[in-house]
Each structure stands twice: as structure tokens, then as C-alpha cells.
Specification:
This protein has one domain. It has helices at about 5-50, 55-75, 75-90, 95-130, 135-145, 150-165, 170, 175-190, 200-220, 235-275, 290-320, 325-355, 355-365, 370-385, 390-405, 410-435, 435-455, 470-495, 500-525, 530-535; strands spanning about 275-280, 280, 365, 370. Helix content is about 80%, strand content about 0%. The chain has 20 helices and four strands. The strands form two sheets. Strands 1-2 form a two-stranded antiparallel sheet. A two-stranded antiparallel ribbon has the order 3-4. The protein has about 550 residues and is mostly helical. A hairpin with a 2-residue loop joins β3 and β4 (about 370).
């Protein structure tokens, strides 16, 4: 290879990965705003309902349609849809428009029918089951919020179209709408009352459904030139069939994850849905368990959503475009893994260390929110979830690497095994650690899944995934994380114990500042490349790469 060709190849290599970093920044920025809004939303919900059965019922009602959103919208269907749409858009934009229109139309009809069937089943259950005020409220809230599912599923698949066209900012803006609606209703209640009742829960449920409609309408407006209705779908039938063949194993694989989430919901809601005992023994959880679990989940999902999922979201369309370019594919995947660990490792350690200050700071203020005992339980749950943030981040990137190359069966088989492991751990650990057992079960399962996927991913690349530069980079990130964690631990160990809300705020602020300074400093001293990648100014790709490149 001549010197000119080598320079040209290197420039193309940097441009492509600069595009990945730019996309990560955009998605991270929008996701940061949405996760911050989600944090504010959950804090307001805890202030509105406290640790009550109504709060747990609303949380469950909100979680059920979101489970279907993750499965059909942002999960299985997106994983099968984006590679096919990216390929069509790369070769024939008119066919891509027809394909997107077909998928959106079928999805709207299918999820609408599914909603009607579930609504009917819930109505029958409401009529046939013995009267129970708390369980009936939970069922009614699920029925009220279930129509959110078809709206948000359509919005999610339209968001996938936006991502392929490089419009990552608008694609990530949907949750801002949801959070805005719920925060507005919650603040209105706090202005006029103290503790929320059933009427408040119904008002928040209606706001949730309206936000889903608004998101779908907004994305349709943005994509008015890319999604055009047509009856002539014959040119894309073969592509749709290929997508369906991929969808079935992906649906099974990701469906198992959603089944696990549903099992978690059942475990947490058992005292409300079933009763206070299990097989004659007093159940270890209570009616506040579900809202406590949700409050802790929001904190660990914050760094995961802001950066971990952002990396996977930005990398997936690029991996799909480079699926037939092995060298470009493996380099994109390696950088995606390194960027995930760059934030995932310190987030895991840092969130574990500050759990006892973060929980009372967010969820107990002015005598409202959780009780001191519930705060301690929420901190224990966070201690279980936090150590697995790095693994959750890697799973999103690695799974999308398999899907981008058309292998949907490997993640499916791994996911089925992980469901069995998680279910066994869930039902075992809750008897020892209460709600925290669900957190530790999730962390253990995610860590095993990430390691297994990393080993199996070698089948999808022509080179070793963990080459020498990648291995050394991960070692440096581990050292930088250890330095940061030790310094923060020492500071928290010798600071005075918190006596009130202001003390928790000062301790948390000090930990964040020290961690935010020490980790980047340690990374730069060891010459880690990840900070420089994130500051790369190349724009996100909106079309096929101009030059094939390898590194």
C-alpha cells in the first residue's frame, strides 16, 4: 500500500469513528435531558404518592405498556428493521420509503389489535375476580395506560428511521415529551394537594397516553418525506419477509428479557396482586416494594441511558451499514465497546459509593416522599443494581453487533439461558435481601451475559475482538476507575456523617466533583484515547461511507 493510500485510509478511518463519536454526543445529550426529566418525573411521583400502594399501582400500570414498547418498538422490531431499512436506503431510497411505510402501518394495526385483546382480558379479570380496592386500582390503571403502547411503538420505529438518516437528536427527543406531560400534571397536584390519591393516578395515566400520541404525531411530521403511504408494496415484500425471518428469533430473545422484567414486576407487586403470603410463608416484600424498586432503577438507568444505550444507539446504524465491510465493522465495534466501558466502569463504582446520600437527597425532602426505612431499602436496591452498569452497556452494543450481521439466533439462545438464571436468582435472593435481591440478580445475570456475548462475538468478526490495543485500553480504564473509586471512598469515609438533607447534598456534591476530576485526570495521565474520541468534531453519518477503510 502506498503512503498516499495509507493516509487516505487513515483519514477515512478517523472520519468514520469521528462520526460515531459525534452521534454518541448527540444521543447522549438528548438522552441526558430525557433521563434528567425522568429523574425529575420519578422524584415528583414519589413526592406525590410516597411509599404507598397507589404509587406502586401507578408504577406497574406505567411499566406494562413500556414493556411492550421496549419489545416491539425499541427492541425486537427495531433490531430487525434498522439493518433492512439501512440497506434499502443505501441502495434504493424509494424502496426504503415503501418499506418504512409498510412496517409502520402493520405495526400500528398489530399493536392496536393486541391492545384491544389485552383490554378485554383485563376487563374480564376485573369483573370475575373478587373485589379488592388496591388490585382493582392497579388493573384499571393498566387499562388506562395500555393505549400508550401502540402510539409509542410507532414512535419508536419512526425513531429508528430518523437514526438511519443521521437525525439522532430528534429520534431521542420522544421521552422529553413524555416527561413533560407527567411533570406538568405532578407539579399541578403538588401545588394544590399533599398526598396523591386515585384521581391523581388517573390524571397522570391520561397524560401518559396523550404524550404517546404527541410523540407519534411529531415523528410523522419530521419524516413526512421518508414515510409516504402507498398501496404498492410489492417491491418490498421480499425485504419484509427477510425482516420477519429475523424478527422471530429476535422477538424470542428480547421477549425473554421482557418476560424477566414482567416476572420482576410480579414479584414486586405480589402483595397487591396476589396477597401477603406465598406457600403459607410471609412474603418478604410489601405494598411499597414496587415504587421503591422503580426509584432505585431510575438512578442506575441514568448513566446507562445517557451513555451506555447512547453508544449502542449511535453504533447500530453504522454497524448495519458496515456489515459487509469486516475491517470497518470490527473497528466500529471495538470503539463502541471501549466508549461503553469508559463511562460504564466509573458509573458502576461511583453510584455504588454514593447510594446512601443520593437516595435521601432525591426521595425524601421536607417530610414528603419515602420514610427513612424505605430510603434505606431503596439504597440497598441501588447497591445491587449499580455494579452491573458496565455489563448492561456492553450487552446493548454486543447484541446489536450480532443483529447488524444478521445473526439473531445467538443472542436469542444466550437470552433464554439468562432468563432461567435470572428467574432462579430472583425467587431465591428476595428471601435474603428483599427488593435488593432483584438488583443483585440483575447484576449477576447481566455480567454473565456480557461475558458470554463477548466470547461468542468472535464468530462475527474476521479479527480477534479483543486485540492488544483494546485489551490495554480496558486495563487503563480499570486502573483509572480504581483510582477514582479509592479517592471517593476515602473522602466519604472521613467526612462527617449526614444529619440532614443539606449534609447529604454536600457529601454527594463533593463525591461527584472529586470523581469527575480524578477519573478524567487519571485517564489523561495514562493516555487513554476515549476522551479524545468523544471530542472529535466529525458529524454523524447520514449516508453510506465514501471509502472502505480498515485500521
Amino acid at each position: 500500500m502506498s503512503g498516499r493510500d495509507a493516509r487516505h485510509e487513515q483519514e477515512s478511518h478517523e472520519r468514520r469513528h469521528g462520526a460515531l463519536a459525534a452521534a454518541v454526543r448527540v444521543v447522549s445529550g438528548m438522552t441526558f435531558l430525557s433521563r434528567l426529566g425522568g429523574m425529575v418525573r420519578d422524584v415528583i411521583l414519589v413526592r406525590v404518592f410516597g411509599g404507598t400502594a397507589i404509587g406502586s399501582a401507578f408504577t406497574a400500570g406505567f411499566a406494562i405498556p413500556n414493556m411492550f414498547r421496549r419489545l416491539f418498538g425499541e427492541g425486537a422490531l427495531s433490531a430487525a428493521f434498522i439493518p433492512e431499512y439501512a440497506s434499502a436506503d443505501k441502495n434504493d431510497p424509494d424502496q426504503a420509503r415503501r418499506f418504512a411505510s409498510l412496517v409502520v402501518g402493520v405495526l400500528a394495526i398489530a399493536t392496536g389489535l393486541l391492545t384491544a385483546v389485552i383490554e378485554l382480558a383485563l376487563l374480564i379479570a376485573l369483573i370475575m375476580l373478587p373485589a379488592d380496592a388496591e388490585r382493582d386500582l392497579s388493573i384499571k390503571l393498566i387499562m388506562l395506560m395500555l393505549p400508550f403502547m401502540p402510539f409509542i411503538c410507532v414512535a419508536a420505529i419512526l425513531g429508528g428511521v430518523l437514526q438511519v438518516h443521521g437525525r439522532f437528536g430528534p429520534a431521542a427527543s420522544g421521552p422529553l415529551v413524555l416527561n413533560g406531560f407527567i411533570i406538568a400534571v405532578g407539579l399541578w397536584h403538588l401545588w394544590h394537594a399533599s398526598l396523591g390519591g386515585e384521581a391523581t393516578a388517573y390524571a397522570l395515566g391520561a397524560a401518559t397516553v396523550l404524550s404517546g400520541f404527541t410523540q407519534a404525531a411529531w415523528f410523522f411530521f419530521l419524516l413526512r418525506t421518508h414515510v409516504t403511504w402507498t398501496r404498492d408494496v410489492a417491491p418490498v415484500k421480499d425485504r419484509a419477509v427477510r425482516m420477519l425471518k429475523k424478527l422471530v428469533p429476535v422477538l424470542i430473545g428480547m421477549g425473554t428479557l421482557q418476560i424477566t422484567a414482567l416476572v420482576d414486576q410480579l414479584i414486586a407487586m405480589w402483595p397487591i396482586w396476589i396477597g401477603p403470603t406465598l406457600l403459607g410463608y410471609a412474603y418478604p416484600l410489601d405494598k411499597a416494594s414496587n415504587i421503591i424498586l422503580a426509584a432505585a432503577q431510575r438512578l442506575y438507568q441514568f448513566p446507562l441511558g445517557v451513555f451506555g444505550i447512547a453508544v449502542a444507539t449511535a453504533a447500530f446504524p453504522m454497524l448495519a451499514r458496515h456489515a459487509d465491510e469486516p475491517a470497518a465493522f470490527v473497528q466500529t465495534l471495538r470503539r463502541g465497546i471501549r466508549l461503553s466501558l469508559f463511562i460504564g466502569l466509573p458509573a458502576s463504582v461511583g453510584l455504588f459509593l454514593v447510594r446512601s446520600d443520593a437516595m435521601p437527597l432525591l426521595y425524601r425532602f421536607g417530610g414528603k416522599g419515602f420514610s427513612p426505612e424505605q430510603i434505606d431499602r431503596a439504597a440497598d436496591v441501588l447497591a445491587g443494581y449499580a455494579p452491573g452498569i458496565w455489563a448492561y452497556s456492553l450487552i446493548h452494543v454486543l447484541t446489536r453487533a450480532f443483529y447488524a450481521r444478521g445473526d439473531t439466533r445467538t443472542p436469542m439462545r444466550v437470552a433464554l439461558c439468562m432468563v432461567a438464571l435470572a428467574t432462579g436468582l430472583n425467587w431465591t435472593l428476595i428471601w435474603f435481601f428483599r427488593e435488593a435481591g432483584l438488583g443483585w440478580s440483575t447484576t449477576i445475570t447481566a455480567s454473565v451475559q456480557a461475558l458470554v456475548l463477548s466470547l461468542l462475538c468472535r464468530r462475527q468478526v474476521v479479527e480477534r475482538l479483543l486485540d492488544t490495543p483494546t485489551f490495554l485500553a480496558i486495563v487503563k480504564l480499570l486502573i483509572a476507575t480504581a483510582v477514582m473509586g479509592f479517592l471517593v471512598w476515602v473522602m466519604l469515609r472521613y467526612l462527617p456523617s449526614a444529619a440532614g438533607w443539606k449534609d447529604h447534598a454536600l457529601r454527594l456534591a463533593g463525591a461527584c466533583v472529586l470523581g469527575g476530576v480524578s477519573y478524567p485526570a487519571a485517564s489523561l495521565l495514562m493516555r487513554c484515547h476515549e476522551p479524545r474520541w468523544l471530542l472529535s468534531r466529525h458529524r454523524a453519518e447520514s449516508g453510506p461511507p465514501k471509502v472502505d477503510a480498515s485500521s
